[in-house]
Amino acid sequence: MQLPPGTFRDRLPSELSGGQRQRVGVARAIAAEPHVVLMDEPFGALDLRTRDALSRDYRKLHHTLGLTTVMITHDVIEAVLLADRIAVLHDGRVAAFGTPHDLMSGNTSADVRALMDMPRRQAERLTALMRDGGA
Q1: Could you give the dihedral angle defined by the CA atoms of residues 9, 10, 13 and 15, in that order, rounded to the nearest 10 degrees?
Q2: pTM as predicted
């Protein structure tokens, strides 16, 4: 979890950053050797840089340990980048289920298409801003 014992062994929880606390929480959950890990908005309270690093680290750990992870998130980009399968809920019901590629390919309802197209629209806006110099 990128928390070297020599550096962090004697620190109190109040002396850890938010990202370090999240890493400790993930390590504690995994130490129990669960078959399934349930995560509810696990990276939501973190700054973007820490969120990105921790999500990449968790994805590697997920594969290395062969974990099954169920993650609840409102962040479509996070779901697309981390998930093998995505269930989209609408009004408390599963509106769509499939791989990120399948759901982003568009053979879904208009609501699900609009949701899954959001990362592409954001990427296009970012590309335009970079191309046009922020104008």
Answers
A1: -110
A2: 0.76
